[in-house]
Specification:
The complex is a heterodimer of chains A (148) and B (107). Chain A is mainly α. Chain A has five helices and no strands. Chain B is elongated and about 60 Å long. The chains are: A mainly alpha (148), B mainly alpha (107). Chain B: Keywords: Membrane, Transmembrane, Transmembrane helix.
């Protein structure tokens, strides 16, 4: 589920499990009543903190999308393939980040209602790796692009 | 639990912080939308670029409306309800649609 870890050991047959859970979560995005039927309503402050975390991830997604536009606009000397590739990578990362933001928010909300531990995730590590790779690629591309 | 939370002072000013988080996010959306429109109008004004601009404006307005709605509902009561999943989904769909516009413009 977009890199969300659910334990490190996984049986071969368990590959379908995250897909099913993701599909169920997508259904819950549009069915707010169902989430209210589950467990107890947590202290409103926890819900608001969860909401702010969601918004922070959404801003990250918007910054990635803005970065995609910026690459397209402010690096006009680059070769077409590099420019479009970098811009699309950033836009794609933004979309992934926003989808994951709502999914993670939902999982946290449900975990709080049920009194379970909050879900852990590999996504922040993955995203930071992607951002690092894109940053290095941009430095290389700008240097090479201005040489030739 | 709800009434107890309502009676005690909230030292963290949680609803206000959440309102400000929505404002910041709207600001980020504005920056992304402005960059998107700059990209759209870069190659000169054509029918396609004007339509894309209008679409981006509509997405930005939708996000603004969502944020404003949530800010008002947070300010209305001392113990606000949790964010509705539909609301959150609408917010990310605006963002994803803006990225889709971007992909169409870049290609």
């Amino acid at each position: 589920m977009l890199g969300d870890a659910k334990g490190f050991r996984r049986m071969p047959g368990d590959k379908v499990q995250p897909v099913i859970e993701f599909a169920r979560n997508v259904r819950l995005w549009f069915e707010p009543q169902e989430i209210r039927e589950e467990g107890d309503t947590p202290d409103y402050r926890f819900s608001l903190a969860n909401e702010r975390t969601f918004l922070a991830w959404l801003r990250t997604a918007m910054a990635l999308i803005g970065g995609g536009f910026a690459v397209d606009q402010f690096l006009p000397d680059l070769r077409w393939a590099w420019r479009v590739g970098l811009a699309l990578a950033l836009l794609g990362a933004g979309v992934l980040c926003s989808l994951r933001a709502v999914n993670h928010w939902m999982r946290c909300e449900r975990a709080m209602r049920r009194g379970e531990d909050l879900p852990v995730s590999r996504f922040p590590a993955l995203l930071s790796l992607v951002v690092a790779v894109v940053a290095v690629a941009m430095v290389v591309v700008v240097l090479v692009g201005w040489e030739g | 639990m709800r009434t107890a939370a309502a009676e005690e002072r909230d030292p963290g000013l949680q609803p206000e912080r959440t309102r400000l988080a929505w404002r910041r996010t709207t600001l980020a959306a504005t920056v992304a939308a402005v960059l998107a429109m700059k990209t759209a109008l870069h190659g000169g004004v054509s029918a396609a670029s004007v339509v894309t601009c209008a679409l981006i404006c509509a997405l930005w307005l939708t996000f603004l409306f969502l944020a404003h709605h949530r800010i008002r509902s947070l300010a209305a009561t001392p113990v606000p309800r949790a964010l509705a999943p539909r609301h959150a989904t609408a917010a990310i769909l605006c963002t994803a649609a803006m990225a889709a516009c971007g992909a169409a413009l870049v290609l």
